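BUG: 3D viewer hangs when loading the predicted structure for this chain

Environment: internal workstation, default settings.
Expected: structure renders.
Actual: progress bar stalls at 90%.

Input used:
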Amino acid sequence: MKRQERIKKLTLAALFLALAVVFGRVFLIPLPWTRGNVNLCDAAILIGALLLGPWYGGAIGGFAGLFLDLISGFAQYAPFSFIAHGLEGLIVGLVARWLPNRWGRLLGLVLGVVIMVICYLFADSLLYSWATGVLGIIPNTIQGLVGAVIAVCFEVPLRRRLHVSLNK
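Structure tokens produced before the viewer hung:
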């Protein structure tokens, strides 16, 4: 990869990481039964993964989840969020690279959200109880799906405007 392209992708990754943290703090709905919250950080993570690829998407997701939990007072979730959102971004980017059409991107988004939900099911279950983990499935799915819908709406226009390609 050319130096200029690498700098552009690193800069965009940093911007999507910052957006994920801002979206995660500004659009925040607490969930008393899971001791967690629903937020819009997934939108920036998923857009970043679709535009920049698996490794940037994984880094954006992992560090956004980690930072959000640390600054939100949910430090017990930080390692789980690093894994859940990191895998989410990685999977979305990998599937979008392997299947670079609309259906591949949609499949990647669905698989990424499913992975994130499963990770939080285990995180809530380990931290609290299986009942808490099960109660978190619906809100985590809603959070992921809202993020995926936002990603679908903004990915193509941003790709055209920013001139980025997964193939580079």
